[in-house]
Amino acid sequence: MEEKFYERIEGYHSINSVSSSLISKVYVWMTLALAITGVTAYGVATTPTLFMTMGKMMWGLIIAELVLVFTLSAAINRLSLSVATLMFIVYSVLNGCMLSSIFYVYSPMIITKVFFITAGTFGITAAYGYATKRDLSSFGRIFYMALLGLFIATVVNFFMKSATLDYLLSYAGVIIFTGLTAWDSQKIRKLLQMQYEVNEKSQKLALLGALTLYLDFINLFLYLLKIFGNKK
User: Fold this and answer.
1) Residues 198 and 18 sit within 8 Å (Cβ to Cβ)
2) Which of 25, 99, 130, 220 is the one with CA 20 to 30 A from 184?
3) What is the pTM of this model?
């Protein structure tokens, strides 16, 4: 009886250790992707020839990003861990190329300030989502519906070009991606707590989680930049 008790305790600690290791990988990969995106964006912005070339390839970059995200999300089980990781890195670079234009719209000081505001907001929200015992699933569905509405309103405003609506959509975007960060954080924690060992399959799930949180962070950053950023 005593032996079985210790076996259960050992098993619990083992699973707990696995989930902790995988969750650490999520945030390491996400941080690495953000660093790659930031360095790439700054490098492209400060190289006029490269910036102009990227500008001419804008639609190609957008299509390539969409293909990479959908492939990673839909075919993660068929990809090897090394290929999935490489695709994540390539996506981070392409996103950096896309975001290089912000250095021509906002000052580096404003970008830095908003980045730290985003990091603080993201960190608090992700920590809440990870630690709370409350099930956020119903809120997650609401935020996803709101995200769809935000996308439609953004497309409509692309033609209307209303500054007031654009400003309101920025606040809506901050609220939506703050909520999604909490929900995604909880969802990733629950998923990784079901893994019994750190193998290729579980690491690919962690990589997918890193991509999800990376996208939450980037979108939150861009909406906050619209609100707090004073254009040059």
Assistant:
1) yes
2) 99
3) 0.89
Nearest Cα neighbor of 112 from 121, 103, 104 is 103
Quote the DSSP letter at residue 229.
P
Beta-carbon neighbour count of residue 5 at 10 Å? 9
Q: Is the pLDDT of residue 8 over 50?
A: no
Q: What is the DSSP letter of 159?
A: H
132: left (phi over 0), alpha (psi -120 to 50) or beta: beta
Read off the amino acid at residue 175.
I
Stated as kind and residue range, the H or E segment containing 217 is helix 200-228
- Identity of residue 39: V
Round to whole Å and give the CA distance between 116 and 97. 21
Predicted local confidence at residue 140, as pLDDT: 83
CA–CA gap between residue 60 and residue 73 (Å, rounded): 20
pLDDT of 181 > 90? The answer is yes
